[in-house]
Every structure is written in structure tokens, then in C-alpha cells.
Amino acid sequence: MTNAPAPAPTVAPLLPARLPSLTGLRFLAAFVVFGFHLHAGGLFAGTGAEGVLAVLLGQGATGVGFFFLLSGFVLTWSAREGLPATVGMRRRAARVLPNHVVVWVVVFAGLAWLGGVSVLSGVLGLFLLQAWVPVQAVYFGVNTPAWSLSCEAAFYTAFAWLLALVDRVPPKRLWAVAIGLMAAVVAVPALALPLPDGLEYWFVYVFPVTRALEFVLGMVLARIVRAGRWLRLAPWQAGTFAVAGYVASGHLPGTFGFVAGTVVPLALLIPAVATADLTGSWSPWRHRAAVFLGEVSFAFYLVHQVVLRAVEAFGPQDATLAAAIGLSAAALGVSLVLAWLLHRLVERPAQRRLLRPTAPA
User: Directed axis angle between helix 321-342 and helix 20-40, to 10°?
Assistant: First the structure.
């Protein structure tokens, strides 16, 4: 018997490990999530701008799908032959966990002081287990955006196993697998139709197992780009398709608009932007300002809804359009300042400390 050939390395040694345009694009995804929560909070109710905001911001929750696809793409892209998959996981954990713990403790303490928090949801959320519980008060408890980190934690835990599976796919079959994963994401809302409303929403939008389809799709897309099998699709073309999918998804029935409506456009956007970095073609997301915003985007994602809750709680109940715009701009500014502070004072120092090489015994 002869041994089967080992799978090809996930990333060719000559390809760059960093793709700055993807970092820059990350803030756009975080911003549309901010916009969704701003719209959902009702600050603009009665101002006459609700219809326009529904089109611009109503589908902002689909930005989370971008993060799941991007995580799978980046982790797979940064993997190296001979380097354990756990190294990439450790880097991601060093970036995610310190910010999460700090924000979670602050928000939990504030809610506990106000008397509006469950200890159970707090404990599950702190350990990033909340998305596994199909109860909204739990998976959206304390700091609501952290539910997606619960999914990410599950993805990171399974990454080494998933990477071994993805690396076994022959290059000529990568597109078939990618299309199959997109079809599976589109099929999830159909499978969830018999479920009660609350459970249907959780199964489609929150459940880590169903959202893992996007993460694995991102992994396969990274291999497609690495293998030189990507389409000739310019970032502006993919971006136009993504905007069209974003708007159109708001008109899909039931839960089909949460994830299924944008999975294909986002799956085309991420590799197209990554390819622009590889070829050196022009990309606005590679600009220094865009990359800086992308670097603080994770911290921004974690703190923004806390700021919006404060605006909703202490702001005027019947704001004029001008006042609502001013409060929104203030919320955005405060969120960015807090994100920058969290990035500088928590995220970066924690990464340096946690990723510091240990001396041999």
C-alpha cells in the first residue's frame, strides 16, 4: 500500500499574509450594524425619515454575515505549511477575548446596578456560550453584539478540524463546494419554516451550527484565491452586487432576508477585494484612514450598542429630524472614541502580552 498524498498547504509561501483592504472593509460592515441598531432603536420615529432609513439601514444586521465569512477567509489565508492551526486561533483569541471581557464586565456591572440583568445570561455570555441557548433574553443578554462572538468561539474551536477537511478538497472541486455551501445557507430559512417564530429566528440567525456554513464558505474561498481559481471580478463590480443584494434582501419573505439574501454577494466581495491587494490594483479600502478604522472596528462593534442604549434612555423621546441626526452623529463619535481607547489600552497591550514568545524551560 502507498500512502495518500498529503493535502496542499493552505497558503502558498509567496503570498502575503496580510490583506489590508479586507481590514479597511471591516469597518464598513461594523458601521452598517451600527446603523441597523440605530434604526431599530427608534430614534428617528416620527421624523419623516423612517422610509429612507429603512432602505439604508434596515438590513444592517447582514453585516454579521460578512464577519463570519471574513473570519473563515482570514484564518485560512494566514495558515502556513508546518505551522499549527492553533497559532492562528491563538492570535484571534488574543484579539477578541480581552476586549470582550472588559466590555462585558462593564456592561454587566452597569445593568446589575440598575437591576436589569440575569446572572445566568451573564455567566453564559462571559464564557461565550449564549448563542447555543434559543432564548432571546440569553443570546442577546448584557452586550447584545457579543452573541456573534459566541459563534466565532465555536468556529475557532473547530477550525483545525475544519481546515483538515477543506484542505482535502481538490482544487478543481473548490468551486463546487463553495456553490454547495451557498446553496445550504439559502436553504436554512426553508428548513426553519416549521419552527415557532422565536425558534425560527434563532435557528436562522443565531445558531452557531447554521452560521458555521458561512465561516466554512470563507475558508473555501480563501483556498480558491490561493489556488489562482478566482473569477475576474473587480472590487467595484463585486461591491455593486453587494449593495444590490443588501437592498434586495430587505424585500425577501420571512427569515430569508437575514442571511440568505446576501451570502452570494458577500462571498464574491471578500475574494474580489483580497485579489485587488494581491495584484496591486487600486482599492479605496487600502487607504490609511480605512485601514485605521478597520483596526478599531472590532472594538467599535463591541461598544456601539451600549452608547446607543444610553442615547435611547437619556435622549428626547420625540426628537426632531435635526436633533435625531445630531444625536446619531454624537453616538457615532463617542463610539469611535471609546473604540480607539479600547483598542489602544486593552486590545493591543493584551495582544503583545498574550502573543509574547515564552522562553524555553
Answer: 140
Residue 181 in contact with residue 220, Cβ under 8 Å? Answer: yes
| Rounded alpha-carbon distances, angstroms, from residue 18 to 201, 221, 274, 275, 298 | 35, 16, 9, 12, 17
Q: Is the dihedral of CA 163, 167, 171, 174 positive or negative?
A: negative
Q: How many CB atoms lie within 10 A of CB 203?
A: 18
List per-block mean pLDDT (blocks of 10 residues) for the chain, which spans 361 residues.
Answer: 40 63 95 94 82 88 95 90 66 86 93 81 94 95 95 93 94 96 97 94 97 98 94 91 94 94 96 93 90 96 94 80 91 96 93 67 39
CA distance 89 to 95: 10
Which helix or strand (DSSP H or E) is residue 125 part of?
helix 119-126
* Contact criterion met (CB below 8 Å) for 104 and 346: no
Q: Residue 3 has what pLDDT? A: 43
CA distances, 325 to each of 37, 57, 96 (Å):
14, 14, 31
**pLDDT for 264:** 96
3-state secondary structure of 267: helix
- Give counts: helices (H), strands (E), the chain: 15, 0
Of 220, 309, 237, 259, the residue nearest 67 (C-alpha) = 259
Dihedral (CA of 301, 303, 307, 312) sign: positive
Angle at the Cα of 258 from the Cα atoms of 254 and 264, rounded to 5 degrees: 115
pLDDT (0 to 100) of residue 330:
94
| pTM for this entry | 0.91
pLDDT of residue 353: 84
pLDDT at 45 (0 to 100): 82
CB proximity list for 17: less than 8 A, separation 6 or greater: 11, 77, 78, 80
